Design the sequence.
């Protein structure tokens, strides 16, 4: 009897946006419209097996305490061999910890991002970034935040701002990271800031987000849509902060 070889279409890594850790996938459901078989592994890992002549995958992820997340994947060598990080946004009913600061309100935007900077240990460029380069060198980058979108803002050249996404470590460079989306401008190490972008999805024009790392004195964060600055807001620690956007 011959050996049956099963190909992998994609490997997902499900992450909890609140804890920044791998999501508990025991109660999370993964639906693939095309009917592909799904295997749940340890540490939030999900393997989607390939089917013949399949050009794309429509994947939906949902579970208790999280908003439904829809993903469109194109089968590729990168998706088969590297994690595709999926960050799950908690909703009301999620077991938030005491002291959590909430951002809630109404919005005409279909979705937006919160730009957050760690004042005590900010992420910084270790070397100048050249446009189109597939790797970037960063200091103080938390490894658990792979697959997240980041904003890089340069003080020169008209204060250019762009987004980038990390896909993994670059083994040949110390403090180096591979990029799936690359900035199209040059950025100087001494003149640039690197900010974490937290995605926020609206449901029926409303949003509800819990933030775990707001200092007791409160903090100012930026609101962005598609990498474009909308406004700044101030959050008070441990409270429900209501805004209309």
Sequence:
């Amino acid at each position: 009897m011959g050996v049956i070889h099963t190909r992998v279409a994609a490997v997902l890594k499900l992450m909890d946006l609140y804890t920044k850790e791998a999501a508990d996938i025991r109660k999370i459901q993964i639906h693939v419209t095309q009917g592909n078989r799904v295997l749940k592994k340890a540490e939030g890992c999900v393997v989607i097996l390939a089917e013949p002549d399949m050009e794309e995958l429509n994947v939906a992820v949902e579970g208790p305490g999280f908003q439904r997340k829809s993903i469109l994947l194109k089968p590729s060598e990168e998706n088969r061999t590297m994690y595709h990080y999926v960050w799950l946004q908690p909703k009301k009913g999620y077991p938030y910890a005491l002291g959590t600061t909430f951002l809630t309100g109404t919005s005409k935007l279909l979705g937006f991002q919160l730009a957050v900077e760690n004042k005590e240990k900010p992420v910084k460029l270790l070397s100048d970034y050249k446009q189109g380069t597939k790797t970037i060198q960063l200091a103080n980058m938390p490894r658990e935040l792979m697959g997240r979108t980041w904003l890089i803002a340069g003080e020169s050249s008209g204060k250019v701002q762009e987004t980038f996404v990390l896909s993994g470590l670059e083994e040949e460079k110390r403090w180096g990271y591979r990029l799936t989306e690359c900035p199209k401008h040059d950025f100087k190490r001494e003149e640039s800031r690197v900010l974490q972008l937290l995605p926020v999805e609206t449901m029926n024009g409303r949003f509800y987000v819990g933030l775990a790392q707001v200092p007791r004195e409160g903090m100012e964060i930026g609101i962005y849509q598609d990498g474009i600055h909308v406004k700044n807001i101030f959050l008070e620690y441990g409270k429900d902060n209501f805004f209309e956007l």
